[in-house]
Write a structure and sequence with these properties.
Elements (H helix, E strand, L loop, with lengths): L1 H28 L5 H15 L4 E5 H5 L8 H29 L6 H15 L4 E5 L10
Antiparallel strand pairs: 1-2
Helix pairs in contact: 1-2, 1-4, 4-5
């Protein structure tokens, strides 16, 4: 089911937004100062292209400790990101979410775009991880 959702997602906004993330990553990578943002952009471009079955989580929650991206410098980096690129990517995901929400079938895709709006605003300190499969214990 995840594969089917991802294939449909690519057609309905996923590819365009992944290209936007990749393009912003290239712009950020032009300067040495922008490399942390570029790395985050490339990770999120991959997530934006193929989101179902994966999720974005805060690295502090994932590792249980603070690092450079989840501390005060990460917060400052996210504020700079928000002003320079974040707002524009968030608007792109919001427009895609509104377009998907027009139909009943598009609602799951609209919800995924809304999750990406949140990531667009504050990407530093986030990690993309596979969702853990939930297996039932026994037959009962």
């Amino acid at each position: 089911m995840t594969l089917l959702l991802n294939l449909i997602w690519v057609v309905f906004g996923g590819f365009v937004m992944a290209v936007a993330w990749f393009f912003v990553g290239l712009i950020a990578a032009v300067s040495i100062i922008g490399i942390p943002w570029a790395r985050a952009c490339f990770n999120i471009a991959s997530f934006s292209l193929w989101p179902f079955g994966r999720e974005a989580v805060n690295r502090r929650d994932l590792t249980g400790r603070e690092d450079l991206g989840t501390g005060p410098l990460g917060f400052i980096g996210n504020i700079i990101w928000l002003v320079v690129f974040g707002v524009w990517l968030a608007i792109g995901h919001l427009v895609a979410a509104l377009a998907c929400a027009v139909t009943l079938i598009g609602i799951p895709f609209a919800l995924q775009h809304l999750k990406l709006v949140e990531i667009s605003l504050m990407p530093i300190g986030m990690a993309i991880v596979d969702k853990q499969p939930r297996f039932r214990q026994g037959w009962g």
